[in-house]
C-alpha cells in the first residue's frame, strides 16, 4: 500500500473453472449467465459483471503446483469452494436465467439476511446467487 492507502498495482479477481468441455462451459457462462467472451478456445475467458471466469481443461501437476491435479468436481454433494454472485433482484435473475436454461437446485429461499438459490454449471460447479435483505443493499458504500 502507498501512503494514501491505494495499491501501487491493479488487481482483478478471476475464478478458474475446470471443464470437461470448455466450449460448452463458455456458452453457459455467456448465453445463460449473460457474460461476454473475452477469449474463446482453451483457455476461454468470460467477463462476468466485474470479474472474469477462466475456463480450461484439467490436468496434472506442473512445476508451480507440483502435487496439484485439476479436475471437475468428483462428488457434486461435497463442495469446498463456489462462485457467489450477488444481485439486486434475485427473482428477476432467477426468471431470466431459468428461461435461458439454468437449472436451479431450488427457487430462491429467504434466509436471515439474504434471499438465495443455487445452480450448477455444466461441469457441476456450484454457483450461489444471492440478494441481501440488509438495509442499504448489496453495493459497498463509498
Helix content: 10-25%
Strand composition percent: 25-35%
Largest sheet: 4 strands, mixed
Rg result: 17 Å
Described by the principal axes of the CA atoms, the overall outline is globular
Number of strands: 8
State the separation between the terminal residues, measured CA to CA.
19 Å
- In round numbers, the mean pLDDT is 93
* Adjacency order of strands in the biggest sheet: 1-4-3-2
How many helices in DSSP terms? Answer: 2
Essential attributes:
four-stranded mixed beta sheet; single chain; 2 helices; alpha/beta; 142 residues; globular; 8 strands
Would you mind describing this structure in some detail?
A hairpin with a 2-residue loop joins strand 3 and strand 4 (51-56). The protein contains two helices and eight strands; from the N terminus they run βαββββαβββ. The chain is α/β, with parallel strands linked by helices. The two termini are 19 Å apart. The relative contact order is 0.17.
Task: Indicate the topology.
Elements: E1 14-18, H1 22-32, E2 36-39, E3 44-48, E4 51-56, E5 83-86, H2 90-99, E6 109-110, E7 114-120, E8 126-132
Summarize the structure.
The protein is of the alpha/beta class and 142 residues long.
Amino acid at each position: 500500500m502507498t501512503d494514501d492507502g491505494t495499491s501501487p498495482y491493479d488487481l482483478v479477481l478471476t475464478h478458474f473453472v475446470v471443464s470437461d468441455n470448455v466450449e460448452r462451459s463458455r456458452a453457459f457462462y455467456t448465453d445463460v449467465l449473460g457474460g461476454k467472451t473475452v477469449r474463446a478456445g482453451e483457455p476461454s475467458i468470460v467477463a462476468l459483471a466485474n470479474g472474469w471466469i477462466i475456463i480450461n481443461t484439467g490436468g496434472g501437476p506442473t512445476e508451480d503446483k507440483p502435487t496439484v491435479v485439476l479436475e471437475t468436481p468428483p462428488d457434486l454433494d461435497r463442495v469446498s469452494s463456489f462462485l457467489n454472485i450477488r444481485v439486486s433482484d434475485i427473482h428477476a435473475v432467477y426468471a431470466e436465467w431459468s428461461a435461458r436454461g439454468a437449472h436451479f437446485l431450488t427457487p430462491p429461499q429467504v434466509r436471515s439476511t439474504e434471499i438465495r438459490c443455487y445452480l450448477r454449471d455444466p461441469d457441476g460447479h456450484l454457483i450461489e446467487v444471492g440478494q441481501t435483505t440488509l438495509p442499504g443493499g448489496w453495493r459497498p458504500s463509498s
